Amino acid sequence: MDLSQLNDDQRATLKQFREAVKDCKLPDSDDVYLLRWLVARDFDLAKSEKMLRNSMEWRQKNRIDTIIEDWKAPEVLTKYCAVGHTSADKYKSYTVVVRYGAMDLKGLLLSVKKKGYLTHVTKIVEQCIVEARNNPARFTSSPTTISQAALILDMAGFSMRHITYKPALDTAMQMLQMNEANYPEFLRRIFVINAPKIFSILYSLAKPFMHEKTRNKVQIYSHDADQWKAALLEDFDPQELPACYGGTLTDPDGNPNCITMVNMGGEVPKSYYLMSKPDTTNKNCVSVSNGSKEQLEFQVTQTGFILKWDFHSEEGDIAFAIYRKGDGQMIPVVPHERVDCHVSPEEGEICCDNAGVYIVEFDNSFSYFRSKKIWYSISIQSAKPDGYQNGSVNNVE
Asked: How far apart are CA 49 and CA 65, in angstroms?
């Protein structure tokens, strides 16, 4: 949509929206950016504001504003995560290619934690937005138009292994929800090509997480290359479309797959896999039943002490959080988040800005069937080299 297309009521709503969110720290403050949120929620002011505020909280929590500078992708992702940018379509949409069927999602998620994978994908999206903003002549039809992307989702190689490995399926659904919630009107068109019959299973699982506006942008094609190449060439000039998809764009050496822009995925070597049997030496153990949570209390006697944790699970992921007791309530210190501590140990530390009782929570309430065994070590240490030093500490009685 273009700002010039707004009617009087929509212009008034945009003005109200700007006033309502003027306290928010936005990554982009122009009217076109605000328009995205209004379009995504059909100009419902309350829903648009709620969506934007939730997204700003997500950006702050995950440090999205500095993700391009801060996130350094592990080698396994740069080599085997088949996501990349190729060109622009006839509508000046930034083009993203995902060779989903060619990716060994199980291998990737055994080599990096889910959070790392999601961070990698988020960085790619943020890079798309920055590049489009820095090159408006190439990626924006006019200064008053919402810039968007075209997604080519290549399902060649897709099989039941992409569906039956639950962590991969969960990650795909979480990634979809994340994009829907935080990048409104980012996609102009989604071309799903080389889709086998079993793709319908994945799509039926994904549809409940997709807004109707997103579903209406999806075009699905089977292995009939003539059909999907013709559809792509309606939206792309040949020189802007990889030769393997019906265009003339190639790598400098003539490779039609444009592997310098989007790698070919493939099986991840097991040498990249994270350690599968973490050390349990000097760790305590707690079992967290399905549908329940365990809370461990620790006394911090002085301001400035460091609370450290190191834990892993044997049966799957767990939600982790740290709170501080204060004024009869639980004050969040480390936000509640599911972590893949069954893939590799979860380690971290915080500086305790207040003395008092800190609560370490292992939450398995999301799991209907599986209990989780957690091996953990919690320590409280002085921040000063010559001060109080303590190893693992006991729970408060």
From this structure: 20
Q: Tell me, what's the pLDDT at 276?
A: 58
Residues present in the chain in total: 397
Q: Which amino acid is at 67?
A: I
> At which residue do the structure tokens 């010559």 appear?
386
Would strands 284-288 and 218-220 be described as parallel, antiparallel, or unpaired?
Answer: unpaired
Query: How far is 72 from 87, CA to CA, in rounded Å?
Result: 24
Residues of the chain with pLDDT under 50: 385-397
Residues 379/360, Cβ–Cβ less than 8 Å: no
Classify residue 213 by its DSSP letter.
H
How remote is the C-alpha of 1 from its chain's centroid?
26
Crossing angle for the helix pair 166-182 and 199-206, nearest 10 degrees? 50
Q: How are strands ordered across the β-sheet holding 329-339?
A: 293-300, 356-363, 318-326, 329-339
Distance, CA of 164 to CA of 196 (rounded, Å): 16
Largest CA distance in the chain: 73
Of 301, 51, 56, 60, whose CA–CA distance to 181 is shortest?
A: 51
Convert the pLDDT of each residue in 94-147 to its tens digit.
999 999 999 999 899 989 988 899 999 999 999 999 999 999 999 988 889 999
Note the pTM of the prediction, 2 decimals. 0.75
Angstrom distance (rounded) from CA 16 to CA 23? 13
CA–CA dist 339, 214 (Å, integer): 29
365 token code pair: 């309430």
Buried b (16+ CB within 10 A) or exposed e, 165-184: bebbbebbebbbebbbebbb
Residue 338: DSSP 8-state: E
Structure tokens given for 126: 């943020």
Angle at 60 between CA 11 and CA 212, to 5 degrees: 50
What does the pLDDT look like over 150-198, one tens digit per residue?
Answer: 999 999 999 988 888 888 888 999 999 999 999 999 999 999 999 999 9
What contacts 302, CB < 8 A, 6 or more positions away?
355, 382, 388
Strands (E), 175-266: 187-193, 218-220
